[in-house]
Amino acid sequence: MADAASRLRSVAEQVLGVPLPVRLRAWDGSQAGPPDAPTIVVRNRRALRRILFKPGELGVARAWVAGDLDIEGDLYGALAAMSGLIWERGEDDRTVLQALRDPAVRAGVGELLKLAGPPVPPAPPREEVRRRSHLHTRRSDKQAISHHYDVGNDFYEIVLGPSMVYSCAYWEDGGTLEGAQRDKLELVCAKLGLTPGQRLLDVGCGWGSMAIHAAREHGVSVVGVTLSQEQATYARKRVADEGLTDRVEIRVQDYRDVRDGPYDAISSIGMAEHVGAERYLEYAQNLYGLLKPGGRLLNHQIARRPQLDESTYHVDRFIDAYVFPDGELAPIGTTVTQLERAGFEVRDVESIREHYASTLRQWVANLEADWPRAMRLAGPGRARVWRLYMAASALAFERNRIGVNQVLAVRTPESGASGLPLRTRTWN
Length: 428
Prior knowledge:
By secondary structure, this protein is an alpha/beta fold. The chain contains 17 helices and 11 strands. The strands form 2 sheets. Strands 7-6-5-8-9-11-10 form a 7-stranded mixed sheet. Residues 155-413 form the Polyketide synthase-like methyltransferase domain.
């Protein structure tokens, strides 16, 4: 098995049909590839078996999560170099079958099988969640939310920093993450036109940051709902520490079960991605019904780019299996259409795509700065999942593969008076 790296590189280039843009270091210590390129470390032959038995993104993800694959050097550089070969290449069973019709590819796979050792598929890492379909029932949604958010509040404190806001910040040059998150919360409050005495529903309230900010800075009464028990416990303590228990209520509750409307305003920040395409109109209708006439909704949501043929769209297998089970992204046009179908008048759409790339890079930096402790708190596999998904997501936002938008919508009364200023983006 001498010089496994050169053999791996040769086979990989044979199968992929293009030069491999990274350096390889194999389990025998051998290396091959440009000396100044990021290095992919293949720690053992089990990594090859994972990829062979599940070609494409999911096999690579399993090897990464299990620690069979690693990256030395520039993480973002390595992911950018490999994205065109994995994440942007497109993968499904038909793609694999078509590739195997090429004799050179078949020969390369045969060589990999020789390198991989015993032809036994390794069990997936325990962090992987298996979903049969995107049902989005109350039970399945609660399980999916628990998988992602009940990782441990101490772990999220490392990643998110003091703000404990798990959504795109709103940056200015030279700003800090905490300041950018504060500015994002204030932007949401301004768009909602919050005034003292109003009632705000915060859907997917997380660790309570939006609810606390709105109550403390704008004098509103807030109900925050989440499906995560760990988030709710943490948020309630923060509310008590701020002396806001008379104005902020945190509930473990599905948004579909909120019955105590009407509210003057609703914020939904980074929650709608969990709703699902089949349930989105229901989501919009529920929020519409909870608002007073003239009430505003601020829907802050990640969006994917539309496909020429939407029937060919595939959910990201790594994200679905390890990060956001049952999460679904929709194009911004689809979101706006569904909100208006529910009765809303959409008044403003603001893209803040670049802001999310900066936010994710800061979260990755936070995680890496306290890596040993993060691994102790969440486990090595889960910590590796978060590092990969956040770094890859930062690149996806930078490359315009995905975006994030704030949509301001109004339950406009029959009189037609929206209550918004004639010149929008003054907000008050």
